[in-house]
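Hey team,

Filing this mostly as a record. A colleague (T.K.) asked me to run one chain through the structure pipeline before their review meeting, and I want the input and output archived in the tracker in case anyone asks later how it was produced. No errors, nothing strange. Just documentation.

Input sequence:
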Amino acid sequence: MRKTGGVRTPHRKATSDSKGAQMTTPPEVILPMDMHRGKPAKCLVSVGDYVKVGQKIGEADGESSAHIHSSVSGTVKRIDAVNPATGGAQTRVVIESDGLQTFDETLAPPVVETLEQFLAAVKASGVVGLGGGAAPAGPKLTLRDPSKIDYLIVNGAECEPYMTSDTRTMIDDSELLWDGVRAIKRFLGIKNIVLAIEKNKPEPIRIMREYAAKEPIASVFVLPTLYPQGARLTLVYKVTGRIVPEGKRPGDAGCVVINCSTLASIMRYIKTGVPMVATRVTVDGSAVKNPQNVLVPLGAPIADVLEFCGGLKTDAAKIITGGPMMGKAVPDLSAPIVKSTGTLLALSEKEARLPEPSPCIMCGRCIANCPMKLMPVEIQNAYLSGKTERLRALKPGMCVECGCCSFTCPAGRPLTQYVKLAKTQLREKEASR
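Output structure:
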């Protein structure tokens, strides 16, 4: 097994047996036009319009954009130009649900017999990267030079603590996932298709191996249980031994990486004609009364999701979307669940309290555990001293922001945050040259 850096985090996969309860329809949903990385979708509705489940309310604006569809039937209550939680410019369509969940009668499974029809279906589905990246799925599968791509890696690592939504996809939606493998083989013709799954997920490994034994069009690659196995660059190296150059993407190393839930969601649309209007969310943390996986309508306010899980305990101190290593703290519980929200954590005061940073003891743990072999403390020093040339030589752009350096630092220093700042500083310097 090829060695990379990384850390052994607590698993805390207590919800792995939770299939996913269907959340009750919220009174209203908030659907941002930028639920994806790239250009926001163009809003297609006006205040007072009646919309149905699956109706397109946002049109993808170019290749690096994705369609937005209504997750409820009801009336457009308002269209915000600013996100009240952050103060940033963000077009958000607020729909008041009528509780009927009436589906758009024009929805129908697409005809998919050619590569062009397959790629059109991927775009029409509105699916984005569900591993956290949120990049529109269409461009990822539109290969400019197919002859240079010989690996497609289906990412089932799910290496962050707490997260189990991908685990449930590989168990409960295994047929859809394998249908996705068949589609990739048929339409893209990629020679090697690999399902990469961490060792601590024996049931998904067993199920996928059974499919592969009956239909050997893909193989199962068992990853060691080590965070961050699911990072794209780390995954490419682990599976193929190839190194993605600085500033490049997996495609430059002959690989495409797609999350397992992303692929299953694409096939759900192709099978049913219903675009992405809901997502499976792992709701967990010591401050949640009833941790579980929940099938959440897109745009449901976080407060409503937590209430569906029994509400919060009195010692709730921090809410995070995403895992504890790479997730983001939520400033307002009215914030909506978006396409890439795979995990919602409510942490107690004890869990949420950050350590008080102390001086660096030069132990080298941040370097030893960095999966990209960077020197986080040196990057921090170069950033703070404004040494641009030194910073450029240290290559902060290679950082995948996994948080291993901060996690392993005995001095409790926020190294990941400093590397993020260094990346921004270096980009600004380069832009001004």
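Quick notes for T.K.: The chain has a mean pLDDT of 93. The longest strand covers residues 74-82.
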